[in-house]
Amino acid sequence: MLKCFFKVIIILIYSGYIYAEEIIIDFNDVSVAPDKIISDTEPFHSQMITLPKVCNSYTECKRTTIYYSLSAPTINNVSGAPGVSITGPNLIRISSTPFSASYTFENSGGLSKPNVNTKINMIISLLNTSNVNLGMTNISQSLFSMNVRRVDSSGSVIYTNSYNFILKGRVEAPACVLNTKDLNFSLPVISSSDFLDTPLGVILNTASSSNTLNAVCSSVQKVKFEFFSSAISSDSTSLIAKNENGEDSGLGFIFIYKDQFGNKQPVYWKGKNQAGIEIYNPSQISIPITAFYIKRRNDYKPGNLRASGTFVISYE
Predict the structure, then answer these.
(1) Which of 75, 144, 292, 313 could form an SS bridge with 91, CB 3.0 to 4.6 Å?
(2) What is the pLDDT of residues 190-249, one digit of tens each?
(3) Tens of pLDDT along 19-37?
(4) Is the pTM value of this prediction over 0.85?
């Protein structure tokens, strides 16, 4: 009888496991002024995150290495290249937005060789690195990945893991932009006799000049226009009209606008308790303003008359 013997060798291969985990860095809603200085060093928002714990004992940590890989294009030269340990600050461009992100390690320990007792904290900052448009920008950008590898006593890889850090949130640029830089009013020539039957402080309706104050606002709760001049009359609603010699002519100019309810109101020049023109929740602002003559005194003098002032816009 022929007997056959077979020797069976079973080779067990432990290859570990690989998976990628997304970690969302959510800064929700933040604001930046459109005139915020363009800088790659001065952030307008920062927050700290704690990186995941990758080992639980001294032995595990000794055999664990962390590699960082950039997921977004960089603006300046980064210390280190993808696949090696990096240190901050590192500036990363966020897609095509005018904003960029930087990240710095708060502590120096555990960058490439983790320590079981050390939390790796990273500060994520947003910077304004180009001109900002009005409105809101939604951001969803992968910034970098943290790749973890662990080996056994023989140097064979027994564990790998990857964490992908994604920056999300919205940046608002609340502001108002003036489309009207100057308001010029050129009233028609009139005769001194036109004032004969006009009472003091009453508008001369037969002559006027109009202009419109235009502005565009975004993410603004309230806008205020204030008017200033060195030639304000006693009631703050008109300007003293001076002749070519700089003398008070006895006449004046008054400016009437329509408020957001359609009511006609005089422009108040900055005086005591005068709030200016206030508009709430503005977007497209258009304020028609009409200039008129008024008689301030009975002994008025003819001539080439003029007055000047400035207006200031503020918003919140």
Answers:
(1) 75
(2) 888 888 888 888 888 888 999 999 988 877 888 888 898 888 888 788 899 998 888 999
(3) 578 999 999 888 887 777 8
(4) no
